[in-house]
Batch of 2 targets.
Target 1
Amino acid sequence: MTMTCYVAGTPVQSDSILEVKSPYDNRVVGTVTLANASHVEQAIQAGLKGGKALTRYDRFSILDKARQLLVARKDQFAQTISAESGLAIREANYETGRAHDVLLFAAMESLKDDGQIFSCDISPQGKARKIFTLREPLALAACITPFNHPLNQVVHKLAPALAVGTPVILKPSEKTPLTAILLTELLYEAGLPHYMLSTLLGPTNEIAEPLVKDPRIDIVSFTGSVAVGKRIAASVGYKKVILELGGNDPLIIMEDADMDTAVHLAAEGSFRNSGQRCTAVKRILIHEKIKDVFLEKFLQKAKTYNCGDPADPETRVGTVIDEPAAIYLETVVNKAVEQGAKVLLGGKRRGALLEPTVIDNVPRDAEMIVHESFGPLAPILTFKDIDDAIALSNATAYGLSSGIVTHNMDYALRFIKELKVGTVNINEVPGYRIESSPFGGIKDSGLGIKEGVIEAMKCFTYVKTFSLPW
Ligand code: NAP
């Protein structure tokens, strides 16, 4: 695939070419002509200059057309996701389905009136007036996305922004730029006015950092690591900022848990998408009384998550994003073993391919427990009672999501109230959501400002109120 960045619909020309290689076999999957600082300036000016304002029906039609085009090209998108990220093709197919839903929900929401009305004669201080609210698009948004869902992370920024009429400059991950550019082209084809979207990649100090700092941009919407998110928070200045950062989510298995449910959720949560989901199960916390029974079944289940060629439809776990990421994961497993942990399954690495790895007796202060391990690791820790489980769960700096396996309503309510996270899912994986429900973390995982189509649409607008005699 020979691709280019775009400044408001115009392909960028430069001598700087990025080669995108498959993490699985290192073949060149595609190239991207990169942008430079002058393209950032052109993109900002094009976005701010704007063009024909889009009606709600216009925005609906573009998003719905994009949805239809994505359905028609879902195989091309899935193959591109898989080739550039190393994710198994079955995961890439799943991701195109999610992106479809994002476009569908954003199209639907774009048709709804989002105003509120306040009658003012409701107190002794009141009078016969009404206050109305309306939402106005922002002048320009900068959206910066990570590699782990090359399509879905991008569409979760673009669709809500476009649904409210806010122009975007997109900076996708350099590790997975091809899918983002395919989507950019698809949106232009669906009728998106070119001023509404520029897609730029290039050196961080020429593209991403200037975008973050530019005072003409009204919002920076970022999804990625805690380290980069905090750097952005420190430099963004006086503008809106959305930060969706890393996670270290627990699956907490209580002593009354249905064992088949626990085993299924632990395996799906730990290994799907090569464990590279912000909401992947990164810690399996299990009541000490049931660990042995759980482990016996879990190991059998984990063995069915075969890893290998991402293009093979039978493969369940592809590579992680690159060899350094796999080496890091191997290192944290070895460090945990030095502290007394035991690898019960997997652990072998070939290039960027790391076998799904089950590690028992992991100390509470192991690096893989304290920090996010973005890969197919399933570290197991025990707790003695619900107080211990809650303390252990809350002990990291992260606060994204959580999954609990229990039928005990008292337990469920305590977890919902006491876990310091953005989401609690009872008898589900931490990552459970629909694309329009509010989503986002607290503590190091985010500022508590939610995304998901509906909340993100609010982020990409300002509320104006006006009042009238009534
Ligand atoms: P990353 O290294 O933070 O990169 C994310 C994006 O930021 C990339 O586009 C990257 O560009 C860009 N970037 C790098 N340095 C920057 C800077 N100084 N200023 C502005 N932008 C900069 O994250 P990643 O490794 O791609 O993604 C994995 C992380 O994302 C994990 O921690 C995961 O948990 C998190 N995540 C969170 C959520 C959520 O909703 N909470 C969802 C998915 C993933 P380059 O590609 O050019 O470096």
Note: Residues 144-148, 153, 171-175, 204, 208-209, 212, 223-225, 228, 231-232, 244-247, 278, 372, 374, 400, 441, 445-446 surround NAP (CB under 6 Å).
Target 2
Amino acid sequence: MGARTEPIRDLAGDLSHVRARQIALISPQQQEKLSPCQMNCPSGTDIRGWIAFIAQRSKLGLSTEQAYTRAWQRLVEFNPLPAVLGRVCPHPCENQCNRGAKDEVVSIHMLERHIGDWALAHNLPLPQLVGKVNDASIGVVGAGPAGLSFAYQMARRGYAVTIYERLSQPGGMLRYGIPEYRLPRAILDGEIQRIIELGVELRLDCAVGKDISVDELRRRHVALFVGIGASHPLLLDIPGEQGPGVLSGTGFMACINQHQPVEVGKRVVVVGGGNTAIDAARAALRLGAEVTMLYRRTRQEMPAMAEEIDDAMAEGVDIQFLAAPLEILRECGCVVGIRVQKMALGEPDASGRRTPRPVPGDTCVLPATTIIAAISQQPDWRGLEALITAAGTIRPDGGGQIADGLWAGGDVAGLGTVTSAIGDGRRAAEDLHAQLTGEQLPAPKQLEVITAASMHLSFYAPGERVRAETITMASRYSEPSAEIQCGLGEEQFLAEIGRCLSCGSCLGCGNCWMYCNAHSYEQSKAPKPGDYFIFNQASCEGCSKCIEVCPCGFLSKSK
Ligand code: FAD
């Protein structure tokens, strides 16, 4: 490939068909590919797309402020809580970032946080979709991220939306689970307020199934979205569990987050390995206790976010891996310790994770004043039994529908994360809107995923991933609510934005246009991210040079 092949002109005839065949073999095509960040984002956010408005602002003729606004508007098409998600998301988008093949993956979560904070500071309203106001009234049960995302997507499409929330403030686990030092409440309040300002009615202190029945809601609304989360803690199911001194992770965090007094004594043992367990351990540390965590597998299998595990250990949480609780020990009714069983990993189970098995005879006792059980949660269906199957579950289809007029998503459909809850809410809203309008949902684009092997990474300047400051250990204790992770400065933000490779989408570098001897590329008069040059196939000589110099893999051989 690469050498130009000219057809040999035969005096006897027209060789245009030969030429056409050669072009068909080696002619380039401008073909958008799926970036790994978007592929791995459970909320489906067009990460590359929103970053492009800022990274390519001069080529797009945008001022910095215009570029930030356009970027944020593209982002919130998928996720109305970017400042929140930039802080708490485990950022699976970064797992396969192609930049990692050059130096270090792009810090997408910090970029998202920065643009989210910028929009809050500039009071940007969430954009309404243009269109007629719909008469249909929609009900939402639960004001967690799933319900808020769904409500937002319906409200921006012009529907009248009412959210019923059993607690006195909206946010679900964002408010009652995740601690303030990871998610300041001013940020959460600001992003929720913007959704409410779209005209969403929020009925607080209204438990569906208790204060109002599902039947009544079904009479009031043409459709309901159920986003009640999974707040009911699972028990350890070991002797000594019943009685004072044993708390659930979610119950403990709800007390901490509402600033209610909670007595844990000097030694706390937290059982579990997820985000709830880590948060509970770090919160107990801030109450002055010595904290040990028990996790029955190894660090590798731990579901909590890696950064959170590192932070917990740096703060002084002792994590015992391959350790499971056997019995809670009490004296005069008070917790005095926990018997611990040493585990070893056996064969992989159905989920592919290796099953922990007890090592016979290998047990020990840890002294403890409080045990916090943070192993898992399930939905609290009390009063909502009519919504579930005989097996006690719900089974949403691909669009989140569980029955006629009923949709569901978020943790109620299976424990997940904030980003998956936001994605579920959006997909359910799109599905419902399509049903109400009779419009077909656009078929999902079937794009090839682009890997670093199909790109030319040497084109890009090297650059280290930004690292934001954190507050000191001393201030974490003196001001337990202060946010630990600081944000990026403006220069850092722009430098990190500039590290995005725009994998699989034209970034307007102009290489194709410069290297094309046949002048087959023309600059677009109305450039857009991914769309800077118009390719004229008729004049293409098929040398494929443009493909060789296209850094991002947007140009590839036509198939
Ligand atoms: P929820 O957030 O639980 O919201 C459900 C809402 O429904 C609540 O407001 C609830 O009060 C309301 N509700 C329930 N029943 C009724 C009823 N009958 N009537 C009316 N309202 C009702 N995920 C991450 O991505 N990153 C993290 O760092 C992270 N940390 C976590 C830390 C903790 C301590 C916990 C508990 C969870 C954490 N998660 C994290 C998980 C994440 O919070 C959840 O996946 C997410 O909040 C699920 O959203 P949801 O809307 O489905 O449910």
Note: Residues 305 and 355 are 21 Å apart (CA to CA).
